[in-house]
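User: Predict the structure for this protein chain, please.
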Amino acid sequence: MPEEKKEEEVRWYVVNTYAGHENRVKENLEKRLETMGIADNLFRVVVAEESQIEVKNEKSKEVMKNIFPGYLFVEMKMTDEAWYVVRNTPGVTGFIGSSGGGAKPFAVEPEEMEAILRRIGQSDKKVEVEFKVGDNVKIVSGPFSGMEGRVDSMNDQTQIATVLIILFGRETPTDINYIDLKLAEF
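Assistant: Here is the predicted structure, written as structure tokens:
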């Protein structure tokens, strides 16, 4: 029975919420883990936020900005019970990838979720790289895909390299995830 096996698999799903209510929905889901007995089917609830500097009246302060307003990510086994509890949590408007009529949603691809977790500093997977500072690299995905540049600095903690690429005739430092880079071949 392949359907049963699929149901028992732990995957990431995207939950749609009212914009601005993502953290409240996350709290509600985390409370329901215990009260509704689904702790063995629902593992992590993540609001994709990153730190940004906001300048107002010549004063700057660090604020957390939601990368995907109106959405949160849930790591769970898609059992009927867990699906029901998440769907019926106050503030949840549905799952992304569910066509309605009782159809369960599609899971987020592991590579996509890993990139999101890495961006917000919640990834525990480290990418092994062949390049070092000073090496020429090729960008293999993202908005600068296909471009080449030289590694100026590397942050193994965030898994981000600053790559000097030529934009508009100038060498421009650009932050690129390790996973989106490979050593350039000459």
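Residues 1-5 have pLDDT under 50 and may be disordered.
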